[in-house]
Amino acid sequence: MRQGLASHFGTKPVGLGGAFLINSGKAKLHVMPTFSETALQTDEDVAKWLKFYEVNAPLTCLSVFISHDPDLDLRVEHTHCFSEHGEGGHYHYDTTPDEVSYVGYYVPAEYIFRIGRPKVTHNVGRD
């Protein structure tokens, strides 16, 4: 959906927030273990540190995305999921495309606020 908005609106930032339910199938999620004792310098460092899981539906997910970062150092997508069967985490993508089904409800944002923008930034850990 984010890529569709970006294609249609170009560099005009359009943000949506909402919730979706994964009714069936499985998804790749991660959870963060205890804080790393060493600096995470590369995407590979982050991938080794995070704990990835394939989790089962149903999953309830809360999601925000923006079509284009208007130079505010935003993550353009961010979604967390939870379930009543004890599985959850940061959503990456579904892993059973022939089985998965989604129902989602989103609303457009009226404003963009950036609070606590870092003085120095990076792209490590942004997928």
Q: What is this structure, in a nutshell?
A:
With 127 residues, this protein is mainly β.
Question: How would you sum up this structure, described in words?
Answer:
This protein is mainly beta and 127 residues long. Helices cover 12% and strands 39% of the residues. It has helices at residues 2-9, 43-49, and strands spanning 15-24, 26-31, 51-56, 59-66, 77-82, 89-94, 101-108. It has a seven-stranded antiparallel sheet with strand order 3-2-6-5-4-1-7. A hairpin with a 6-residue loop joins strand 5 (77-82) and strand 6. It is globular, with a radius of gyration of 16 Å. The two termini are 16 Å apart. The model has no long low-confidence stretch (mean pLDDT 92).
Helicity range: 10-25%
Provide the gyration radius in Å: 16 Å
Number of helices: 2
Order of helices and strands: HEEHEEEEE
* Cα end-to-end separation: 16 Å
Report strand order across the widest sheet: 3-2-6-5-4-1-7
Structural class: mainly beta
The biggest sheet, with number of strands, parallel, antiparallel or mixed sense and barrel status, is: 7 strands, antiparallel
Total number of beta strands: 7
Estimated share of beta-strand residues: 35-45%
Mean pLDDT: 92
Low-confidence stretches: none
Shape: globular
